[in-house]
Specification:
The chain is of the alpha/beta class. The protein has 28 helices and 14 strands. The termini are far apart. The protein binds ligand C2E and magnesium ion (MG) (2 copies).
């Protein structure tokens, strides 16, 4: 059983025990009442009989406390409180017991006797202990100001109650015709102290360990008895002592026992909810001091006791003022906090968390406002080139720091000319609403990006699209134009800026649509593979082919790979596309092998993109294509570019695995990358394909001899290196007999190019191979 369940079954038992004590105390009080009525009406007994009711009631309350203290589950703080209260109840009971014995033993002169000093002392000690017990109950405050406010509230309440006690009780008792004994007055005063102390505390104990209802009942027992006794005393003088002792004062044990029962029940049951912390207390106190003042206003004599009340009223007013001032200052502080928080929130929703630049939302808002106000605005859209590579190779931490560095650079360069923005990812923007020149700013940004930035000294470049608001432009249209311009800048070879002009959108949009159309092309079989022969320069014999993909578009006709391969890479469609080319090439190469024998065509090559090398299924795709076609693996060449090879560990692992399988790897477009030479050592290449750019113009010795010399030097270096490393070479883009001659002279034995053979269909290759075979047969 859970603790809660245990508690709920404990409640009925607790209720039964507690109820017995409450009924017993109430019974004593009722007996006192019955006797008192009988005495006043018919003189039953003597006055002295009025006195035992209080101590008997006290015994019952004490027994109830002891019984409750046996509960092991009682919270230590509550236990301390009730133990102290037990001492208090015991002392008061002893005091009144003494008084009762004194009265009963001097029954004859009872109406003239005052309370014996030891008895009064015991009661006074009892009240003192009760005050102390209440004082030690912990309060719930959040500290600081809260604590001071509570102190003030309680002081105000105390002064208010004390003023009432003075005015209605002690002062009349002092000036009564038959003066009351000092003891009686001290006791009434102490009972009031217990009442006020507990009452002002109860508002601050919340749902604490000492039950709120219990404290309230303790307060009430002190307050009610002292109050009624005082009123009776003032009204009836000494004659009131019999009803006071027999009817009013036995109520004290009843209420105290009810308090014990409440605590008892609270131990067994769930905690009470925290109450609203003393809000009304000071106002009640102010109202209380006002009572005597109003009485004076309505004609009560302004005697010296009232002056005391007046002083109390002034003190209360002063304290209330201080309290209100504290509350006012606290409110002002809270208000200030709220405002600061609001501002921070405002900042957070309009700024980018990483770079602190304005975000897309703020950017759009400002752009819309500017368009509405002046209709004039320019937008620079700045997109970092190849940021994804940085992220992939160096990790997101470095990527993030790079973005922060770019943001700093942007802030410094833009200055007061515009609003720098991070639109998202690696895309930034600048909004110009003033007179700054957008193109000049773009040039400045590109120049600044020429220096390596961030603590990693990275060189990043950006493509910038510029768009100006035309009449009737909306934020959306300006952003779209900037996007198109930026896209165009990227297409024109990155690291540049392009200003949007009318009509620029269509080709870009067409390009963007390509991605969507490619999917369809794959499904509808619109892709074809053509083969470009790779030829031996010495005798022009075909030794291999390179597979090149073509798209037979239903409307646009044959589309070259340069147009759609980038879109396929961006969308990931390159993976299924590449798989198709792979299967087709293997199938075709196997067919040629079967038809023309092993000597006709040594190898078939095809192009592989970086994205495909990243695909975890790539190696199994290759294995499956080879197995499916029956092509021996050494007859397959996979062409990869230098930049694709440099794409991290996963790619590197894939390449080594392919190499181990016996598949040959070719470095395509060799010499255009930045680290060609070192790559040769790090990468398991078998073939190097000298890029067309080094073949172009290699033969010219009159026009630009210096340029031709430089190209020859590169071509010579590449062949020497390849020879030294035992790699085969292919010179790409051979367009003339002169080029072929120079290449042969340099040591190249194999070439590929329009001069040697154009890309052609598989049937054309078959025809070529057949002719070649018959020529060879004729030679023999
Ligand atoms: P690449 O791998 O360097 O292929 C050679 C490109 O140069 C082919 O262009 C070819 O037609 C062209 N070419 C050959 N000889 C000459 C010449 O003498 N003069 C000139 N001007 N060009 C010549 P193509 O077919 O347009 O392919 C362009 C690029 O597209 C390829 O360059 C390759 O990187 C890529 N590509 C083609 N097919 C595929 C494919 O199936 N998969 C992948 N991933 N990329 C492919
Ligand atoms: Mg190639
Ligand atoms: Mg190439």
């Amino acid at each position: 059983m859970t603790r809660e369940a245990l508690r709920s079954t404990a409640i009925p038992a607790v209720d039964a025990a507690a109820r017995r004590y409450v009924w017993a105390a109430a019974g004593v009080a009722a007996l006192g009442t019955v006797w008192c009525v009988a005495f006043l009406a018919g003189g039953v007994g003597t006055e002295a009989f009025a006195y035992p009711f209080v101590p008997v009631g006290g015994l019952i309350t004490g027994a109830a406390v002891r019984h409750m203290l046996r509960d092991n589950d009682l919270d230590p703080v509550a236990r301390r409180f009730w133990r102290t209260m037990f001492v208090s109840i015991a002392a008061i009971t002893v005091g009144y017991g003494w008084l009762a014995v004194d009265m009963l033993t001097h029954a004859v002169q009872a109406h003239t006797r005052t309370m014996p000093l030891p008895a009064a002392g015991c009661v006074a000690i009892g009240f003192g202990v009760a005050i102390w017990a209440v004082g030690r109950v912990p309060v719930v405050t959040t500290g600081g100001v809260e604590w001071w406010r509570m102190l003030l509230d309680r002081t105000i309440a105390f002064l208010g109650c004390a003023a009432v006690l003075w005015y209605a009780g002690l002062a009349p008792m002092l000036s009564a015709r038959e003066p009351w004994s000092r003891q009686a007055m001290v006791l009434v005063g102490l009972a009031f102290l217990v009442a006020v102390g507990a009452a002002t505390k109860v508002s601050y104990v919340a749902g604490g360990p000492v039950d709120r209802v219990a404290i309230r009942l303790i307060a009430a027992s002190g307050g009610v008895t002292a109050g009624i006794v005082a009123v009776l005393a003032v009204r009836f003088g000494f004659a009131a002592s019999v009803p006071a002792q027999a009817i009013v004062m036995p109520l004290t044990p009843v209420m105290a026992t009810l308090g014990v029962a409440a605590q008892w029940r609270a131990n067994a049951g769930p905690r009470r909810d925290a109450a609203r912390v003393g809000v009304l207390l000071p106002y009640l106190a102010v109202a209380a001091v006002d009572v005597p003042l109003i009485a004076v206003a309505f004609g009560a004599p302004l005697r010296w006791p009232v002056r005391v009340v007046l002083i109390a009223a002034v003190a209360v007013t002063a304290l209330v003022t201080v309290r209100q001032y504290i509350a006012f200052r606290e409110n002002a502080r809270l208000l200030r906090n709220t405002r600061v928080q609001e501002e921070r929130l405002q900042y957070e929703v309009s700024h980018d968390g990483l770079t602190g630049l304005a975000n897309r939302a703020l950017f759009r808002g400002r752009l819309t406002t500017a368009l509405a106000r002046t209709g004039h605005a320019s937008v620079l859209l700045v997109d970092l080139d190849d940021f994804k590579t940085v992220n992939d190779l160096l990790g997101h931490g470095v990527g993030d720091r790079l973005l922060v560095a770019v943001a700093q650079l942007l802030r410094a360069e833009v200055g007061d000319d515009g609003l720098p923005v991070r639109v998202g990812g690696d895309e930034f923007a600048v909004l110009i609403t003033g007179s700054a020149d957008a193109e000049e700013l773009a040039a400045r940004l590109l120049a600044a990006l020429n220096q390596p930035i961030s603590e990693h000294r990275l060189l990043v470049q950006a493509s910038i699209g510029i768009a100006d608001a035309v009449p009737g432009a909306t934020a959306d249209s300006v952003l779209r134009d900037a996007d198109v311009a930026m896209y165009t800048a990227k297409q024109r070879g990155k690291a540049g800026f392009v200003r949007y002009v009318d009509g620029m959108g269509e080709p870009v949009l067409a390009h963007m649509q390509l991605g969507g159309e490619l999917r369809r092309a794959l499904d509808e079989d619109e892709l074809r593979v053509v083969y470009q022969p790779i030829v031996r320069l010495a005798d022009l014999r075909v030794v291999g082919v390179e597979a090149l993909v073509r798209w037979h578009h239903p409307v646009r006709g044959v589309v070259a790979p340069a147009e759609f391969i980038p879109a396929a890479e961006r969308t990931g469609l390159i993976v299924p596309l590449g798989r198709f080319v792979l299967r087709e090439t293997c199938r075709q190469a196997a067919a040629w092998l079967k038809e023309f024998g092993p000597d006709a065509l040594h190898e078939a090559g095809l192009n592989v993109s970086a994205r495909q090398l990243h695909d975890p299924d790539f190696v199994s795709d290759v294995t499956a294509a080879l197995a499916g076609s029956g092509l021996p693996c050494e007859r397959l060449v996979l062409e990869v570019t230098e930049s694709a090879v440099l794409r991290g560990q996963q790619v590197s692992r894939t390449l080594y695995e392919l190499d181990r399988m016996g598949i040959r790897l070719a470095l395509d477009d060799f010499g255009t990358g930045e680290s060609s030479l070192s790559l040769l050592r790090a990468f398991p290449a078998s073939v190097v394909k000298l890029d067309k750019s080094f073949v172009d113009g290699i033969e010219i010795d009159d026009g630009q001899p210096a340029a031709a010399d430089a190209r020859q030097a590169v071509a010579r270096a590449v062949i020497q290196l390849a020879d030294a490393l035992g790699l085969a070479t292919v010179a790409e883009g051979v367009e003339s007999a002169e080029q072929a001659a120079v290449l042969r002279e340099l040591g190249y034995t194999v070439g590929q190019g329009y001069h040697l053979a154009r890309p052609m269909t598989a049937e054309s290759v078959s025809t070529l191979l057949a002719r070649q075979q018959s020529l060879a047969a004729a030679d023999h």
